[in-house]
Known about the structure:
globular; eight-stranded parallel beta sheet; two-stranded antiparallel ribbon; TIM Barrel; 39% helix; alpha/beta
Amino acid sequence: MEYVPLGNTDLQVSRIALGCMGFADPVHGVNPWTLDEQAAAPIFRRAVELGITLWDTANVYGGGTSEEIVGRAVRTYTRREEVVIATKVGLPMHDGPAGSGLSRKAILAQVDASLTRLGTDYIDLYQVHRFDPRTPVDETMEALHEVVAAGKVRYIGASSMWAWQFAKMQHSATHHGHTRFVSMQNQYSLVQREDEREMFPLLADQGVSSLPWCPLAKGRLARPYGQVTGRSASDPIGQRFFGDVDRPIVEAVHRIAATREVPMAQVALAWVLDNPTVAAPVIGATSSSHLDDAVAALAVQLDKAEIGDLESRYTPRQPTGF
């Protein structure tokens, strides 16, 4: 495993992050690709064996049960000081005034709820799940600074928004002397590269790391075109992200992987990891082999011709995910 600083901090994170959206109590895990705690156990064990120390979840995943499963996994398979726990706030948890959004009331209530579910007294990386147009950014950034000052959170990050929104929030923090974001969890893969236009240059300028979600396009970049996974076939969000325009890209990944005699996932992830602003792609593993492929991708160095082949197939499209 390789480790890099997160943003302009000295917090070292593994170059592969374990995405925990797919782990949930069966009552809340209504998707066919969701794993209960028992089924997820081998994946947590393999993550520890491989040195994957960045574990990413959210309060909304599985109605809060993902955080509970992650917290128990930390206590069962590793030690708290050995992992970097990342979670999120902002999407609806309940209908009350503190149940969603990024108001001070919501942030202060939801951070305590996450701490209880995770069974820990601090969160390493607390991320705003989406931009909240209803709440003044000054209020949000002050509340986030407050939970850092209280010792409940070590670092803060953001996820999936327009570059101008992220810049506005970051400027608010700087102007008022509040805690600044150190990471951006944005959608990024060979079939969704729109953040290269403004977001990635902004992140590089601000010393902020990218933690890409969906780096394999929900499995579409990990198998020949037309073959689907349980998630890609059933995830309603995924259905609006991808289409036939991606076929040349998937076929290029397939061709390069066949020539190199490696799985397609390794080629697609190697391309994501080649971006200097990327710290760690978030891998939503549903089997231990997914983590093995992700770690193996760290050793895959694509040459200029291969990168050119992959990138030349891309056509501009609507940004998605926020």
